[in-house]
Design brief:
The complex is a heterodimer.
Chain A lengths: L1 H25 L6 H6 L5 H11 L5 H13 L13 H36 L4 H15 L2 H15 L15 H27 L2 H8 L4 H29 L3 H6 L5 H10 L3 H29 L8
Helix pairs in contact in A: 1-13, 5-6, 5-8, 5-10, 5-13, 6-8, 7-8, 8-10, 9-10, 10-13, 12-13
Chain B lengths: L3 E14 L2 E14 L3 E5 L6 H9 L7 E3 L2 E4 L2 E2 L5 H7 L4 E4 L13 H12 L4 H14 L5 H4 L9 H13 L5 E5 L7 H18 L2 E6 L2 H7 L2 E6 L2 E7 H6 L4 H8 L50 E2 L6 E3 L3 H5 L1
Parallel strand pairs in B: 3-9, 3-10, 7-8, 8-9
Antiparallel strand pairs in B: 1-2, 1-4, 1-5, 5-6, 10-11, 11-13, 12-13
Classes of the chains: A mainly alpha, B alpha/beta.
Chain lengths: 306, 327
């Protein structure tokens, strides 16, 4: 396990370095940031002054090391728009996104995995058909439309839940439904196909030949092997859910990271955008690494155990 | 019938397909006495694996299985229920399969896979179950068995894995062992070792063995009795010596003639083979299934039923022209 773990962590570290360099480079993507900050009416002297003030006149590599050094100590710079530390802005918004993402993820898994297993046990049976309908509609219906429809039906017509904002936990009900409905199809389909593959294997037949009851064959022998691909997919999906859906947060007026990223882009508040991209990218790195480690504990072949 | 470990009459297996019902097993009678080895021989698709899988009750749900009589290990299973068969699996009857690389779960340790059945069925403690696993691994020739319980299947060679599968099958101390082509996926040298092991275990433990194979060399070395299967029926059944000495069914003759003999089969000449192909088994089949490939075939061979003969005690052959073939 240890050689696997150290190898995997080294890869993760290299990805982090690459990602940080890329998000640092974003600052310069739209041209000279000093001119952008100076604004359309800015004079050349203003831009020059800004360049010196923000340190844009130094070599790129020095700027990068300076930036990454502060980032490591928890300083992601100042918001150009609000003129307060970026970490403070993000800290105010991240809670909503994390809550929404994690709850949606758990709801999606809790529905997708049992449904996928049940569908796989009897392919083309009625559960499988219902699951297919859910999967196809989940993938075909745009989430903004579904979000608006749930607001109309449950918020406006029946008044069962708040239609926007996250002041109370009820405010999360509709966004969680919409976001998990978006995540369910893929998770369910991969569980189903994995289970169908594994149930056809010789070792499942051998397990039944030992006289094991079906529920043990399914949980101990089949599911454990079938969820290997699911773990990898779920990590990416959780990343997507946590990156804050700009659409869902906008539809339900939730002040999360996704919405913050969108607003900051409109305001050209690059340090905020940069920080969000960095944090979310690192989140992906952490999640995929965790998924690999989890898979390695599930499958001895992956960790090179004998 | 107390010494009969397996007694089946008129086993039928049919499988619905897009083209109609596939009558894969069309009335098979089989019996094995306690402590004996029956080899079920036939070419691919003749229904021998389906027969074995039906006996242990592991066919998929869509396969329809019927029997006129089905007794196994002293229990009458004619009104077979899945629950009763499930209770017998792993205890009264166990099965080993063709490809040992895929029959062990890659994500569970050997120890876990050996012990999980008996720990449940016999309520053994972890320690007792481990002790039996070590005993069985030792018996099948796995060196240093105690240390290997915590290892995973991918650390073992194909031959070792088949030994582990055999040990796993023996864990519940079964009376009947079904082996479905247990040596087909192995190297020739390993094949001989596994066969020798099966033979030894069978006499040591008094097992009854149903061995499915298409390899007549295997049959000659291990069988007490042989049943030759063709297109879902038993064409001929005989004690092993009688079958090799005096085959009575044209198909058995063809099979035996198709074994190339070094020195006798001229180099560069075409290998002997039975001409023609196995008939399709979708829908009803009239007369003898082998008649299109049979040199003895005549008008009468298209008629039903194909008569069964007992040319000698313990022998059976199903052929319209049995007298002519024997002559």
């Amino acid at each position: 396990m240890l050689p696997f773990l150290s190898k995997r962590l080294l890869v993760a570290l290299l990805v982090c370095v690459t990602v940080s360099a890329l998000s640092f480079g974003l600052m310069f993507l739209s041209g000279d940031p000093a001119i952008a900050i100076a604004g359309s009416g800015g004079r050349a002297e203003d831009a020059e002054a800004i360049r010196v003030a923000y340190g844009f006149d130094r070599p790129l590599i020095v700027q990068y090391l300076d930036w990454i050094g502060s980032a490591l100590t928890g300083d992601l710079g100042q918001s150009i728009y609000f003129n307060v530390p970026v970490t403070e802005i993000i800290g105010n918004r991240v809670g909503v996104t994390l809550t929404l993402g994690f709850v949606s993820f758990i709801v999606a898994l809790a529905i997708a995995v049992p449904l996928g297993v049940a569908a796989a046990l009897r392919p083309n049976g009625w559960i499988d058909r219902i699951a297919l309908v859910i999967a196809v509609s989940g993938q075909a219906i745009p989430s903004f439309w579904l979000g608006l429809m749930t607001i109309v039906v449950f918020g406006v017509w029946y008044g069962m839940v708040p239609i926007s904002g996250a002041e109370s936990w009820q405010g999360y009900i509709l966004p969680v439904i919409v976001l998990s409905y978006y995540a369910i199809p893929e998770l369910m389909r991969i569980t189903r196909s994995g289970m169908i593959d594994v149930l056809a294997t010789d070792y499942v037949r051998a397990a039944r030949a030992k006289g094991l009851p079906m529920h043990l064959v399914i949980t101990r022998h089949a599911l454990r092997n079938a969820i290997l691909p699911l773990v990898s997919l779920a990590a990416v999906q959780l990343g997507q859910l946590l990156s804050g859906s700009i659409v869902i947060e906008s539809v339900f007026a939730l002040n999360g990271l996704g919405r913050l990223a969108w607003e900051s882009l409109l305001r050209s508040d690059l340090p905020v955008v940069q920080a969000i991209i960095l944090i979310l990218s690192l989140l992906y790195v952490v999640l995929t690494t965790l998924a690999d480690v989890l898979n390695a504990t599930l499958d001895p072949r992956l960790r090179g155990a004998s | 019938m107390t010494d009969m470990m397996l007694d089946i009459k008129n086993l039928q297996v049919s499988i619905p397909t897009d083209r109609g019902t596939l009558n894969a097993v069309r009335g098979v009678d089989l019996s094995i006495s306690a402590g004996k080895t029956l080899c079920l021989v036939g070419e691919s698709g003749c229904g021998k694996s389906l027969t074995a899988t039906a006996i242990i009750g592991l066919l998929p749900r869509y396969a329809k299985v019927t029997t006129e009589r089905f007794a196994m290990a002293g229990q009458d299973l004619t009104a077979r229920t899945e629950a009763r068969l499930a209770k017998m699996r792993g205890r009264d009857v166990a099965m080993i399969f063709q490809d040992p690389t895929s029959t062990l779960n890659p994500t569970l340790t050997i120890g876990r896979q050996l012990t999980e059945g008996v720990m449940r069925a016999e309520r053994l403690s972890r320690k007792e179950a481990d002790a039996r696993a070590i005993e069985m691994l030792d018996r099948v020739g796995i060196a240093n068995p105690a240390a290997r319980l915590v290892q995973y299947p991918h650390g073992f060679s194909g031959g070792q894995r088949q030994r582990i599968m055999i040990a796993s099958a023996l864990m519940g101390r079964p009376k009947l062992l079904i082996a479905d082509e247990p040596t087909t996926a192995l190297d020739v040298t390993i094949q001989a070792q596994i066969l020798a092991l099966l033979d030894e275990l069978q006499s040591d433990l008094g097992l009854s063995l149903l061995l499915i194979t298409h390899d007549l060399g295997v049959v000659a070395s291990i069988a007490d009795e042989v049943a030759v299967m063709y297109a879902g029926r038993i064409a001929e059944r005989a004690p092993v010596k009688d079958l090799f000495r005096a085959p009575q069914h044209p198909y058995t003759r063809g099979l035996l003639a198709a074994i190339p003999v070094p020195g006798q089969t001229p180099r560069g000449s075409e290998l002997p083979a039975i001409p023609g192909r196995v008939p399709g088994l979708v829908g009803p089949l009239k007369g003898c299934a082998f008649r299109d490939r049979c040199s003895f075939a005549g008008e009468i061979c298209g008629q039903d039923p194909v008569p069964g003969h007992a040319p000698a005690p313990g022998r059976f052959v199903e052929c319209h022209k049995a007298a002519e073939v024997a002559a």
